[in-house]
Amino acid sequence: MKTTRREFLELAAATGLSAILPWQRVFADARSPTLTKFIQALPGLGPAGIPVASPTSHLGTDYYRLVAGEYTQQLHPELPHSTRLWGYADATTAVHRHLGPVIVARRGTPVRLNVSNDLPPVHLLPVDTSLPGAELSPNRMAVHLHGGHVPWVSDGGPFSWFGADGTYGPSAISAPDMGAPAPGTFNYYYPNNQSARLMWYHDHAIGITRLNAYAGLASAYILRDFAEAALIASGAIPSNEIPVVIQDKIFKTEADYWGGAGDLWYPSEYDAQAVPPGGLPLPFPSCVPEFFGDTMLVNGLVFPTAHVERRKYRLRVLNACNARFCTLRLFYAQGAEFPESTEPNTHQPGPPFVQIGTEGGFLPEPVLLDGRKNATLLLAPAERADLIVDFSEVPEGSILILYNDAPAPFPTGDPEVDYHAEARRNATRSQPGFGPNTRTLLQIVVGPRIGANDPHAPLRLPPLDPSPLVPVGFTALPPGIPIRDLTLNEDFDQFGRLIQRLGTREPLYDGTFARDYGDAPTETPGAGAIEVWRIFNTTGDTHPIHFHLVNVQIISRQAFRVGAPHFLGPPRPPDANELGWKETVRMNPGECTTVIMKFDLPSAPFFVPPSPRTGGHEYVWHCHILEHEEHDMMRPLIVI
Ligand SMILES: [Cu+2]
């Protein structure tokens, strides 16, 4: 752990581990059917939209019973059939709706979940059984509260899965004070001792996380507190709140082995042409390095439309794509008639965003994002943004488009997976007014203001909660804090497929710093310890690195080159909208991202036993590009 600033770079220079692999398409593409954009309403929270789960009271907590199962839902009126999905439902209603049911929790009131696994024994997507864990039954699940500060037994990590057949993963310990779970069920305990924030809960079962989440096992978890309530009561934060959960999908146009027209398509084949010679024969189905959809969903439906009044709204944005980054801006539509009402005029910006929060709650200060360079909202998979948008100056009857033009993959970009009407290289790619289209996410129609004007209240955000570990904006390494040097790596697996992995600064395998998720834990901080992690990205991709258990402060980003003995420039502070607490952090190619965190363990009303698998409090840290996470960009985080 003891290290100097230069040591890693010197080691890297000595070993000459330097290959940055270029992006290449490695799987055949499917294409969604042509769907008319913006002909259905954006689902809100409630019975007509995304259901909100209703708790009963149990042991002084909010007690929820959820069931996970397969169901179908018409996600767009023109899809030939309703789409088969996997998802959670409130067991008291058993109503399955895509992205439901949302849990609304209150700080200080713990939540208990009892989850039943009713998933069918055949997965609705291609399962690559060459990935570790994926050879097990395909209807395993693990509920991870993403962003939650929860005891490891309730973290829903990869080895804490439970199968519909009553089997359990080697790290599965149901909440100990809720009795032995019935076979195929599991109990979770969430303390909710965190400040107000948007979290989400989604599947994390080893080997099939990317498939389970894509199939629909994901929903929002909104945590409220008094500081937020006071801001809303004063009018500083609008009470009109709209969740904006973004996903990209591909829908089948014809039946295949895994489903019929209208069902979700997911790659099953790795392009043999893209594989260097000498590897084992490619498995089929095979994982792929990244999945990019061609059709955008917001709040679970394809290309919806929102109707707003001329007043302020709060948007709670979550990028729930498997791999696609989003840069989000509002533009006025080209006109009021179809299809001009569905395409943006990128020369006419709409109202700016004021960002007030991230994954870790409120920012220290509101940040104006008006679309200029360095003032554009960029969200990697799993990042969240709490935004205020003021439509009061927008003329009545205006139509706005929520627009994304982030390169995919990020930051290199491949025009082949950027579907839009202005595309020059292939003008037939997107027809104005219709999908596939990955740039136009949501249409917003601005109507008259009904009722009282918005109150005028100064927007002053509460101090960071908990207090920061280093002063906000401090880009130097704090003295006396242990430093870990870690690496993000890309090379090839035994089949010759691209593989992304985390690693340390000490090579375990020849020619790479990378380690497998299954290798012995190396990140084993003590409970309550504060550590600085310097994470060197040696790959060509930006990776959104997600930390279970902890929120982090970003200290800096600094350019380096593997093979050069020094950093290539001074440390750069985090972006203005990264100055609060984060748990998903973009780490760019050729940069060392330095974060600081404290490994406090959450409280629990029961004794938390050590993991039978690892002997500590078993968490993980990983890339949240789900295809990277699964193959194999994840490492244990074991708090001792
Ligand atoms: Cu990654």
How would you sum up this structure, described in words?
By secondary structure, this protein is mainly beta. It contains four helices and 37 strands. The strands form eight sheets. Strands 14, 15, 16, 17, 19, 22, 23 and 25 form an eight-stranded mixed beta sheet that branches. Strands 2, 18, 20, 21, 24, 26 and 28 form a seven-stranded mixed beta sheet that branches. Strands 3, 4, 5, 7 and 11 form a five-stranded mixed beta sheet that branches. A hairpin with a 2-residue loop joins strand 16 (295-298) and strand 17. The two termini are 16 Å apart. Residues 1-5 have low confidence and may be disordered. Residues 500, 541, 543, 623, 625, 628, 633 line the site of copper (II) ion. Copper (II) ion binds next to loops.
Write the layout of secondary structure elements.
Layout: H1 7-15, E1 35-36, E2 40-41, E3 56-58, E4 61-73, E5 83-90, E6 103-106, E7 111-117, E8 140-141, E9 143-146, E10 162-163, E11 185-190, E12 197-203, H2 209-215, E13 218-224, H3 226-234, E14 241-251, E15 264-265, E16 295-298, E17 301-302, E18 304-309, E19 312-319, E20 326-333, E21 344-349, E22 353-358, E23 361-369, E24 377-379, E25 384-390, E26 399-404, E27 434-435, E28 440-447, E29 483-492, E30 498-503, E31 530-537, E32 543-547, E33 552-559, E34 584-587, E35 591-598, E36 617-623, H4 626-630, E37 634-639
Parallel strand pairs: 2-18, 4-7, 6-13, 14-19, 18-28, 29-31
Antiparallel strand pairs: 1-27, 3-4, 4-5, 7-11, 8-10, 9-12, 12-13, 14-15, 14-16, 16-17, 19-25, 20-21, 20-24, 20-26, 22-23, 22-25, 26-28, 29-30, 31-35, 32-34, 32-36, 33-35, 36-37
Bound molecules: copper (II) ion.
